[in-house]
Amino acid sequence: MFIRIVSSIILLPVLAFILINGGIPLYLGVMIISLIAIKEFYDAFRKKNFNSASLLGYLFTMIIYFGATSQMDSRYITCGFFITFFILCILLVMRKYNVIDMGITFLGIIYIPYLLKYIILISKFSNYNYIYLIFVIAWMTDTFAYFSGYFFGKHKLIPEVSPKKTIEGSIGGVIGSSLSCIVFGYIFGFNLIHMGIIGLIGSMIAQIGDLFASSIKRFLEIKDYGKLIPGHGGILDRFDSIILTAPFVYYYIYFFID
Length: 258
Description:
This protein is 77% helix and 0% strand. Helix 5 packs across helix 10, helix 7 packs across helix 10 and helix 8 packs across helix 9. It starts with a helix and ends with a helix.
């Protein structure tokens, strides 16, 4: 626990610098995080002898973030998808990769850089402070779920996926996220009803994101995706709940607030 806390204290100033400055630091920061996370993802599958076309995944990650900085976002990404798929088709015909390798390559692309790019898209809304909601939801859910489970947890949530998670911890995470978002909304002058709703639903989605990542780890029989962050594992282990939270926050704001 001590190592986990120290790692968080070291990581937070770096993340704060990226978020507060926005613009180029934000684009580069999220792209680097995506590149490290997708490498951890492909490396984890490689340990089980699945041979993803990782270089194509890295290339497409950079295409996604180049597109996110321009006004041609969707066209760059659609073109990138086509080019990546076409190259994989050629490699499949040449028997360099099989269908499973191809599926893992695309799963990594969609799961990590494509969804994390919503952090950048949120930064383009009329109020930049919306971007912090992603992290308030994900990390307050994690914090409140941990302590609720520690003090009150009796009933296992999904033990075959994550043995330590409890129903009580999950409920505590939802409550903690909702209250934290309301406090956040009060500080920045946002509609408190919307903040409560986004915190409640966002917490559920964040927990699903965490469980999804855990399901893959169970399948691959690994504890963590990496060892970059002592006490936390890899970048993907630290951002797994954020990956699904970011697009949810974007679309909620897009349809109901901004």
